[in-house]
Specification:
- This protein is mainly alpha-helical.
- About 95% of the residues lie in helices and about 0% in strands.
- The chain has one helix at about 1-105.
- The longest helix is centred in the middle third of the chain and has 105 residues, at about 1-105.
- The radius of gyration is 46 Å and the shape is rod-shaped.
- The N and C termini lie far apart (about 155 Å).
- V-ATPase is a heteromultimeric enzyme made up of two complexes: the ATP-hydrolytic V1 complex and the proton translocation V0 complex.
Length: about 110
Amino acid sequence: MDSFKGQGGIQMLLTAEQEAQHIVSSARNMKMARLKQAKDEAEKEVALCRSQMEAEYQNKISESTGSSGSTVKKLEDETDRKIKALTKSTSMVSKEIVDLLMKHITSVKI
């Protein structure tokens, strides 16, 4: 009778081991499912963040490009004004410079 009891105990242990393996396997599967879900959610967040940052980057580029065009125009206008001012002042002084040079060239000191 003790041997019958021993076989029943072994059978109980085998059943308990199978049940434990089933529980561990189920826990592993659930863990893997949670990890996959977390990975998918993280990838979605990364994609969303990347698209937002790309949009901000494109906005900055378009702002800087637009302002550089107006800056170039402003610099061209300023350069034209300075050239005209220099041309005007040169034409006003050129007669005096020519007269001064002619005076020094033609006068002979003895």
